[in-house]
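User: quick one, fold this
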Amino acid sequence: MSWLELSFTRNIISVVVLFIITPWVYGMGMQNLHILAAAIAFVIYLIPVPLLLWGKKARIATAASYRKMAANQIGRRTV
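Assistant:
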């Protein structure tokens, strides 16, 4: 990541905090915001569970299309 991308990303995060999260905290309250943030984090942390349960079946089901897409790349891969 170049310094320009890093600077742009940091500035975007600052703008989001300033203009979106701050009024959200004032409107919702600190306790409810933390409860919502915990619920969102919990849902995000649950994403690997279906991958662990059904990931192998999904990879087997999509192997043929992956091989077809990999063969169409400019730098060929050995599959």
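User: anything notable?
Assistant: The two ends are 29 Å apart (CA to CA).
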